[in-house]
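Q: A reviewer asked whether we had any structural model of the full assembly, not just the individual parts. We don't, so I'm hoping you can provide one. Inputs are below.
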Amino acid sequence: MAVETQVSSSEENGRPALDWQAIGRELFFTALVAFGLTFVLVGMQTADRGGELIIIPRFTDVVYAIVMLTLGRFGYIMLRYRRASFVLIASLAAFGLSFVLPFPSLFLETMCMVGGLLIALMAVVTLIRHRPGIDMRERDRAMDRAAARFQELSRFIGPILVVFAIILPFLPFMDRQYIDIATLLLMYIMLGWGLNIIVGLAGLLDLGYVAFYAIGAYSYALLAVSFDLSFWVCLPLAGVLAALGGYLLGFPVLRLRGDYFAIVTLGFGEIVRIILLNWYQFTGGPDGIGGIPRPSFFGIAEFLPASRDGITFAELFGIDFDPMHRLIFLYFLILALALLVNMVSLRLRKLPLGRAWEALREDDIASQSLGINRTNIKLAAFTISAAFGGFAGSFFATRQGFISPESFTFLESAIILAIVVLGGMGSQLGVVIATILLIGLPEVFRELEQYRMLAFGAGMVLIMLWRPRGLLAHRDPSILLHGRKGPGADRIEAEQKAAEATR
Amino acid sequence: MSALQKTPLLEVQHLTMRFGGLVAIDDVSFAANNREITAIIGPNGAGKTTLFNCLTGFYKPTVGCLKLTRDNEDYLLERMPGHDITKHARVARTFQNIRLFSRMTVLENLLVAQHNKLQRASAFTLAGLLGLPAYKHVEQSAVDLARFWLDRINLTARADFEAGNLPYGDQRRLEIARAMCTEPALLCLDEPAAGLNPRESAALNDLLLDIREEIGIGILLIEHDMSVVMRISDHVVVLDYGRKIADGEPEAVRNDPEVIKAYLGEEDTEELPDVIKQDVEAAAKEEN
Amino acid sequence: MEYFVQQLINGLTLGSIYGLIAIGYTMVYGIIGMINFAHGDIYMIGAFVGIIGFIVMAILGITWIPLALLLVLVMAIVFTSVYGWTVERIAYRPLRGSQRLAPLISALGMSIFLQNYVQLLQGARVKPMQPMISGGLQLMDGGVGGFTVGMSYMQIIIILLTVVLMAAFTLLITKTALGRMQRACEQDKLMAALVGVNVDRTISLAFVMGAALAAVAGVMVTLYYGVIDFYIGFLAGLKAFTAAVLGGIGSIAGAMLGGLAIGLIEALWSAYFSVEYKDVAAFSILILVLIFRPSGFLGKPEIEKV
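A: Here is a predicted structure for the entire assembly that you could use as a starting point for your response.
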């Protein structure tokens, strides 16, 4: 076991003496685990040679990995013994060496660099604070205070962000690729805000949100392709159909609690996907649906070089045709949809319905004792949230022009849920920040295609470890008796002190 | 109805609650009046909280009838879903282990208690979403009611604090205020004085007496602290092992031999194994 | 009739595999109350270690099948357990006691990480394996033009091995000090710690044992189907979790029973209705069971605590 050695009391120069035996044990154990993790999966690569598998040995990689992990652990232990300056120098040396040493793979080289920097950072923190790391609770409280300040500022940050989002497409450096990324981010922000109602406000763990997204997308695609309805007719219809789906699912399952609820929603998401995959006549099965009509300019003009019937967007405004027009229009469309979701959510929070959601999240038994009909309130959350998912889905369909079940896997649900939880449940601004971190960063590093999802998974774990309650976990009251300047103006600090006193 | 008239409010008839083989409440009948504090006492495991859970719809009684009379109308609680009991029959309760919405503010807790009124006023969210003035008006009156109770329990200054960060005694009083914000006809309090210091306990007594006198509703009170029971209750019901063993004025109940036996367990020694019984007797002799 | 018996056998085989994985879910859930979303991927890693192990056996020249099988099983159990332990240590232990969703998200992250880790190291392509154990028994001969019920040796091995492991595991949990510690931690971690149980180690062991059983399931699947890829963990994990819930989460016998039920439903549904919708059938039954009997087959009914 990784023995968390109690730092011994015998100290030299105010630092604990090194217990080499304990350190040796711990390092040996680390090396053993590293061996177990890497020996088979890293050391022996399987390759297909004419229908038969062979093994390509990569044992140098294993040795490198074991040495690196053990040295990393050594640095960590030394920090516990407060040998910070030594660790700082050593880790920076490791960082430097990573450029020189002949690493067998780019991955290991990167790990050496990142690991060296991380440990160096920890060493710096130890040097500054004169003790190893920061206490979890202390860090949490400091982060809470920072998040609360940030939330207070969000009244200003929000509008600034909206203005920024509006002028964004007209900035000189925006090209096709950046508009695409911005549109993608807004789609996830909208989905995050939609799911936030179920997960963040009502506290129900929904693992199948993608089902509503899929229902919206397929509703739009099928209505538009089969009945030739325009986007502006289909959008509300898709929302209504998704809401209906939410209602129908919600009705039987909302009685379930906690993880059972989660697993049933997960099952529902999979059922929807499997049906889409197999109902060939209706959904096109794995081939999906193509040729989905693009939205027009509010039904007035088309985004085409030339229109057969009616006018084009370029003609309408007397400008030259540019394919970017449609992209920018789509960008504004999703921006408007996302802002709509945001506005409705913010409004709902201040209404009895929204307060009942939060009350249910906090304590559903107490809620019932106050005369709140639990089922109806949860059903409302489910239905509204599903409708928003449906809107996002129909936008997705019209943007892609092609949809298939592959876009609606569980991974998608997991990503949206991760956005909500990482952002801090219930926090609107948190969703924006988490989306930029989780979706934006990987998009920027698209060249590192193979490492993208690896880093994505590791990032999810690391952020949770660093801040389990989400980045902006502070909850903004929905109503204040004394206003922002009243006796509770510095509520957060006053409360933390009061809470400390009671403990 | 004259202000001082005591009318029957709650009638419990032949209530029985079984969980599998365990009989938690066994054929209990009693009545509670309006403008009275009815204390329900008994040793641990006597079935007091189970009785509350039946009254407030968390359990469906195996047998029995729970009739609440309010404004000349009868409500059969055992036939109503839990949330309707609070909404229509107007029974409110607190919990033994405080159940506040701890991450919501004090004021929000009190507004959630007025959910049904506000929900109707917001036309089930639609009017509220549009921000119509009619809703704003009702919301203001809800805040006023909350403020009334905040003043009563001295928490106005902390109205915007998170409920979970309040000291223990404040949380107890806030839970009572929250129950009162549902504008109940019957208030059920599950050990409200537990864990309070003597000063807080005295303040609680005053609050309960005020609720009885001014608001004029009936209170059902589970309490272990006999000094509280004797001081404020008008009527005491004693439960033991799920059965009712006494029912009457506090003075009469205090001197009831059945009750004394249940609390002090006089004859329990007879059921002990002989060896231990001898030990107990020897110890008793030594003390003498 | 013969056709039905054949499907029953197929279903039992499949169900054994789900059951072995389901035990990992149910143990972890019982002890720390969280869904270990990375468990399906642990099973996938078990399958990969297994397939590599078989090639190693071939290289070493160990051709006697029982010995090779045993060695590969041991190898898979050992190396997969290290993954089980590490996942708990890195992604779950630091989050113990924080809000309920945090470990779930880190589990999801871990699952995504492990899938891509294996994909990166071993390639995204499907890994085929030559069948090692072929042949079988004929149980019922349908005669000329009739349907012959057969049970391959592989199926026999899978079912037998599962029965043996289940028996051993039940003994471990009910009779040994280790099992007592597991059950004590399930009931009340704080109290267990007070009476001297090393709670951290017990939880680690639950992950290790779950991983070991998943590794066995992984090796069996490799042999049974002959192909694996880095993505097999997701659906198998999902169904195994369904099985654990169906059987009553927290109950080890229930997990096995749930696994068998899911296996049978899947086999019979594929045989009589449609192969495409077999997963829909499994999930629909899960939803129905949860609505009408939320505690599963063997779980204790939950009374709402007020």
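A: Points you may want to mention in the reply: Chain C touches chain A through 77 residues (CB under 8 Å). The radius of gyration of chain C is 20 Å.
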